[in-house]
Design brief:
Blueprint: H1 5-11, E1 24-28, H2 57-70, E2 74-78, H3 88-96, E3 103-108, H4 113-123, E4 127-131, H5 137-144, H6 149-161, E5 168-173, H7 182-192, E6 195-200, H8 218-229, E7 232-234, E8 246-250, E9 255-259, E10 272-275, E11 280-282, E12 291-292, H9 294-298, H10 303-315, H11 321-327, H12 337-342, H13 348-351
Parallel strand pairs: 1-2, 1-10, 2-3, 3-4, 4-5, 5-6, 6-9
Antiparallel strand pairs: 7-8, 8-9, 10-11, 11-12
Bound molecules: iron/sulfur cluster.
Length: 353
């Protein structure tokens, strides 16, 4: 996955209207999930993408190659829950052989991670991020309708044992659900040798129960942590300006991150876009419409034609979804359930988080 500097220089020429490069791609491999987290899938039933619309591994790999040639340096596999896609390691193997890709990562809820960690690592996956919102199994059962908390913890251990260098935990913090666990999660991460990133509860598609007052803000998180540990220093990451997490360090060197999408959006540096499992490309998590890439993929378009389509859309990209939401005086849910059922690609579990 090494990339000659000359190629990188060439790629960085594809920028959007705010001079943001096309740098990072989130590939969703399924819209299905084996959890029902309250911030993402709180409803009883969902409209799923038709199975025959899902891109094959060969189609995903071809698309990835086109994005890489246009400048994408990082690919993150998402869902739904990506490990529900049969034989995901095969796709990882294909992607890891793409020349020019600098980073290949996976976001998972961890339930199936223990059984797949070693094969994913062997196939070439570099980094794993595991969602872990609570250390209390009974809370996970109530909030995410899953009794498999111990499997998630086992998955984290197996990922560390498999040799992934950058195992991270993602914890969405919601008032009245888990805001009393911030310090416990930080201690758990420290003891486990992983880094936790606290995420503000976001008003994305699918979050039909979102309320501003349930958001625990970056400022409140930092205050809680500083009250317990004293000084908290920012840890700038100049090599990675588009990273969504702001990193911090405690006096003993323990690092953690905060993703403050709600109160301190980072659209200005955003180089991310998302492809749903059925091949619809979104240039923003909040974008109303996507670009159908499945049709040209299956309709006989060659790579140059698809590349030209992607480049044209990226050059016109002016998305600043989270900043625009922040500016709304009366901020409520993004879509009501009927709007989500009318177009399931509005759901975060379809679009990839
Ligand atoms: S809201 Fe859109 S533009 Fe802003 S950081 Fe998220 S994906 Fe990027």
């Amino acid at each position: 996955m090494s990339t000659p500097a000359s190629q990188l220089a060439l790629r960085s020429s594809l920028i959007d209207v705010f001079s943001r490069p096309l740098g990072s791609l989130r590939l969703s491999v399924t819209d299905r999930c084996n959890m029902r987290c309250g911030y993402c899938m709180p409803e009883e039933s969902y409209v799923w993408l038709p199975r025959d619309s899902l891109l094959t591994f060969e189609e995903l790999n071809r698309l990835a190659g086109i994005f890489i040639a246009l400048g994408a340096r990082k690919i993150r596999l998402t869902g739904g829950e990506p490990l529900l896609r049969h034989d995901l390691a095969s796709l990882v193997g294909m992607l890891s052989r793409q020349s020019g890709l600098g980073d290949l990562a996976l976001t998972t809820n961890g339930i199936l991670l223990a059984e797949h960690a070693a094969s994913l690592r062997t196939a070439g996956l570099r980094r794993v991020t595991v969602s872990l919102d609570t250390l209390r199994p009974e809370r996970m059962l109530a909030f995410a309708r899953s009794a498999r908390h111990s499997d998630v913890l086992r998955g984290i251990r197996e990922a560390l044992g498999a040799g992934f260098s950058g195992v991270k935990l993602n914890s969405v913090v919601i008032r009245g659900f888990n805001d009393d666990e911030t310090l416990d999660l930080l201690e758990f991460a420290r003891a486990s040798g992983v880094e936790v990133r606290f995420i503000e509860y976001m008003d994305v598609g699918g979050a039909t129960r979102w309320r501003q007052e349930d958001v625990v803000t970056r400022a409140q998180l930092l205050e809680t942590i500083a009250r317990r540990y004293g000084r908290v220093d920012p840890l700038p990451d100049p090599a990675n300006p588009a990273a969504p997490a702001e990193r911090f360090r405690l006096a003993d060197g323990t690092g953690f991150g905060i993703i403050a999408s709600v109160t301190a959006p980072f659209c200005a540096e955003c180089d991310r876009s998302r492809v749903t499992a059925d091949g619809t490309w979104y240039t923003c998590l909040y974008a109303e419409r996507g670009v159908d890439l499945r049709e040209p993929l299956r309709g006989g378009a060659n790579d140059a034609e698809i590349s030209a389509l992607i480049a044209r859309v990226w050059r016109a990209r002016d998305d600043r979804g989270a900043e625009r939401r922040l500016a709304e005086p009366e901020r409520g849910v993004l879509y009501q359930i009927d709007g989500l059922r009318a177009d399931p690609r509005r759901e975060m579990h379809t679009r990839g988080g």
